[in-house]
Amino acid sequence: MPAGIFRLCLVVITAIVNHPHLYPRENGAVPENTEEIIQKMKEREEILRMEQLRLEQEIADQEARQKALEKAAEVVEESKEEKIRWDMWSALSMVVFLLMELWRQDFQEGNWQDIEGEEDDMAVLGKVFKGVAFPDKAVLSSFYEKRILGTTGDMARMREMVEGFADDLLEALRSVCNRDADMEVEDCMGVGSMYENWRVRKPFVCDLIVPFAPPEPYRFRSQTWCSGDSFPPDEQGYGTIKVCRANEDVTGCICDKTKLGEDMLCLLHSQANTTRPSSEMEDLLCFKNTQYLDADQVMKWFQIAVTKAWNRISHKYEFDLSFSLLDSPGALKIKFKSGKSIAFNLTPVVQYENSDVYFISHFPRSCLAADLPSSTHWFLTFAVYERRFIQLVSKTLPANACHVTCLQILSFLHAKQCSLTGPSGLTNYHLKTVMLHLLQARPSQDWMPENLEARLQDMLKFLEKCLHEKKLYHFFIGNGKVPEELGFPIIFQRAEPLNLFRPFVLHRDVYKKTVDTFHEMLRNMSALINEYTVHIPLVHTNGIHKESF
């Protein structure tokens, strides 16, 4: 306690002694020191303020960098999310592509021809023509017997006459040709409606194809749109024919593509075995400066050869022979002194490999026929296989099956309607294709003669459906269900199906005209048929026709 009091007293004394009022004179410089201190304090304050500004700037910069980093992180995160979404879309697109590929394979295997499964759709489409009178079986049978059946004998006699004359003409053609330089002509073959016994409209015209081959040592090498060569979509159904030597490699020898030195020889090709110059290739009916067979050159050669052959044998016949149509170079007409005439087509073709598929130089023109990409492009015809298929299926059908009858009636109705309202995009080949599809889709017993009315309706409904969708597929191309007995080339079975109605997509005016003609034909069906038959009253029920669409 005393120690504490002592310390307190010491502090009080010290404060008194050091109080400024006790030494006023000695502290006269205090004001000046204060101003100096104040000045220093201001300087210090300024320094502190500058330091504060610097620190605030650094903090702001740091915050900006932090925000930039956060934004970059957000962008990276968004890009990751976008990449994930893109990966999902890519995976989804791949799944869709695989599903489409699987569907396409099923499509090629023949599911696209499964007409039985589409009968409901066909029936729905048929309702568009509800109330249109459809002739019953009695009327159809009477019409067939009176208008169509009698033409069968006429076709048989005409075929026999034309075939005999064509054989004689081709034999004379061979005799006037140079066997060492000209094309070698083979025997002709009959194809089409006249040889499938369903042509009904006059004048009757026989279609004959004449295969030919190049002289030795040359051969034809064919390329088609489905053989791996590049053909654009508008050239599907076409091919090219290259003229090459029999011992020439498919890919060609390197000596044709590389300049060898004067002192170098190709061990595969001797000097005597070199390729003919361009002028001689043109003698082989090739397009100028190419090795590709020219359809126009072939037809010119064939017309000249036929003219020479006719001049040699004309004295044996009491009629004249002439070329009749400009747009069909192989069209010939026999004119008798009585004024009657017989027309037939004699068209040169090239065999595709070892099959009965042929490259044909020219087809008869139609509204849908497009111009060939060039004269070196040849269309493929499957007419021989079509005839064989009909013959093969006919063996499994009941006696007097109605498939040919249906096609004949439909062909007659369409031709009659076109004679009234003008041509349409439909051809007899389209109608035959419809019948081929139905022949393959329906069981044999469905084609009994008493089912004529139902099968004719099936053909009309199927044709209506194809017109509605603008899709009618070639019967053989892409059809995996072709009977093996036909020996049909597998390359065409595995090809993409060929849509015969594709031109309708490109030519809308022709499509509209075709649909209008088809509708008008349905409405006029009874009138067109009754015009050629004795009147057989239709069966009525409550004022409604027995059968109608």
UniProtKB/TrEMBL annotation:
PANTHER family assigned to the protein according to its UniProt record, in alphabetical order: CELL FATE DETERMINING PROTEIN MAB21-RELATED (PTHR10656), INOSITOL 1,4,5-TRISPHOSPHATE RECEPTOR-INTERACTING PROTEIN (PTHR10656:SF8)
One Pfam family named in its UniProt record: Mab-21_C
Coiled coil: 38-79
Family: Belongs to the ITPRIP family.
Keyword Lipid metabolism: no
GO CC term (a single one): plasma membrane
Ranges for domain Mab-21-like HhH/H2TH-like: 404-477
Keyword hit for Transit peptide: no
CDD domains attached to this UniProt entry: UDM1_RNF168_RNF169-like
Topology within the bilayer: Single-pass type I membrane protein
Function, in words: Enhances Ca(2+)-mediated inhibition of inositol 1,4,5-triphosphate receptor (ITPR) Ca(2+) release.
Domain of life: Eukaryota
Protein name: Inositol 1,4,5-trisphosphate receptor-interacting protein
Subcellular location: Cell membrane; Nucleus outer membrane
GO molecular function: protein kinase inhibitor activity
Keyword terms: Cell membrane, Coiled coil, Glycoprotein, Membrane, Nucleus, Signal, Transmembrane, Transmembrane helix
Residues spanning the signal sequence: 1-15
